[in-house]
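Please check this:
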Amino acid sequence: MSQPIRTAGALALGALIVALAALTFRPGPAVGALAPDADPAVHTITVVGTAAVTRVPDTARVSVGVGVTKSTVKAAREAAAKSMTAIIASIKALGIDEKDIKTTGIDLSPQYSNSSTPKITGYRMSEQLQVTVRDMAKAGEVVDTATAKGANEVNGLWFEVGDPASAMDEARAAAIAQARTSAQKMASAAGVSLGIVVSISESVSSSPGPYYYGDDMRALETTIQPGTQDVQATVSVTFEIA
């Protein structure tokens, strides 16, 4: 092989080696640097908002019952049934719909003597009734009428808001508005701008409660005061800031 040919071959081989070396040692992005298409970090602020809506209850649930003790099971059942039939009829006469009168419990239990060798002395029959009163003016009448017809157990009175969903919607909207106001004040104080909502979470609570009366209420005309109920919403809202 002649000298010119060997020289040309050597030059071509050298060029190929340089190209491969450049490809192999091509520098990459610095450690910790963002890739060209990576999203920048999002900065956020999280605040809690709480609001309550006050409503006057428009529904009452009255729990009444009758308990009788007789010497035999049959006598106890008959006496309790007679009283309960009269109680239900008197409640219906007030205009309470049958679907709003519900039996919630029936119990029959033996009664024992206190002697050293206890013996059955009789049987106690108990029946419980729950009445939903949608006209609040009749709540006291239901108690008075039932006790006048033989109810000797008044177990409780509960007040409810008929449409709690609308009250909750209003409380939730007010809580979110309060959260936004607080976030705006915090952002202004920090010298940043408040952006879009990133996330919202919610916890809900309300404060209905039963009202109980003593045994002597049967001798009086029962006056019912439903008061008010608070429906409360608490939200945690995260906003983007820039």
Q: What stands out?
A: The first strand starts at residue 43 and ends at 55. The two ends are 73 Å apart (CA to CA).
